[in-house]
Amino acid sequence: QPITTDMSTLTKEIEKFAKDKKLQIETLKVREEYRKEFMGNVSHELKTPLFTIQGYLLTLLDGAMDDKNIRKKYLQRAAKGVDRLIYIVKDLDMISKLEVGNLILEQEAFDIVELIQSVFELFEMKANKKNIVLTFDIPYEPIYVYADKERIQQCVANLVVNSIKYGKMDGTTEISIENLIKNKIIIRVTDNGEGIEQSNIRRLFERFYRVDKSGNRKEGGSGLGLSIVKHIIEAHKEKIYVESVFGVGSEFSFTLEKAAEDQILEAEEMYDDEI
Ligand code: ADP
């Protein structure tokens, strides 16, 4: 049987093949850039605490060890550096899981009011150090949402920590919950801290992005906190917003779905079983 070759079809197919390949290569190039940037950022973030720890240990070995008071002080500082490393590595672990899409949400019905109260308790001491008041208009009854409790706790914690870190002395952090249309609520974390310039807001949720890039910034952090929050909220198919006025304060908010009656009942039954 003779082979009939329709030249124009063939040309079209070759062109399509070349276009696809070009696209593939471009995607790979972008990924490679992304990977390089990521590695650069990771090593940069790890370097600071590592050098700090090394500095203290070397000074101790150099003779500072003989003085009991200095010994304790330097060991405490080195231990603080280790804490920081652990914190960064945990954040990195979380972000890689989130980005690869490996995070499986474990959704259940739980009371968000109780969760917020527990986060406030956790950070009361930190707030006290800057004389920041944590306020939460507690609704009279529980508000059940359907979400991954542990992850949402992390989101609230990251936002509260930021509001304290970037908050002013004697300032306030306020959390409020409001009903939205249908079965949604919105949780707002508002501070009257340093605020964020408009030009920085766009990049705020990028990983490793920090407004103050100087090495001597007073607040520690990995620049991963908000990026983790955004990933978690988006994994829930919910929305996150930020509004900020430089020098006045910021408000971070996100939506959550209210739990349905049967989900609440199920959660209560499980709770009863545990008891
Ligand atoms: P980190 O706090 O570790 O730097 P985040 O991802 O949590 O990282 O935040 C990124 C940046 O956004 C911070 O470095 C800070 O500049 C800015 N930022 C976050 N929250 C606030 C806030 N409540 N007020 C002012 N700036 C903030």
From TrEMBL:
UniProt EC number: 2.7.13.3
Gene Ontology cellular-component terms listed: plasma membrane
Catalysed reactions, semicolon-separated: ATP + protein L-histidine = ADP + protein N-phospho-L-histidine
Enzyme class: transferase
One of the protein's GO biological processes: cellular response to phosphate starvation
Keywords of this entry: Kinase, Membrane, Phosphoprotein, Transferase, Transmembrane, Transmembrane helix, Two-component regulatory system
Gene Ontology terms, MF aspect: phosphoprotein phosphatase activity; phosphorelay sensor kinase activity
Domain Histidine kinase: 41-260
Record-given protein name: histidine kinase
Biological source species: Neptunitalea chrysea
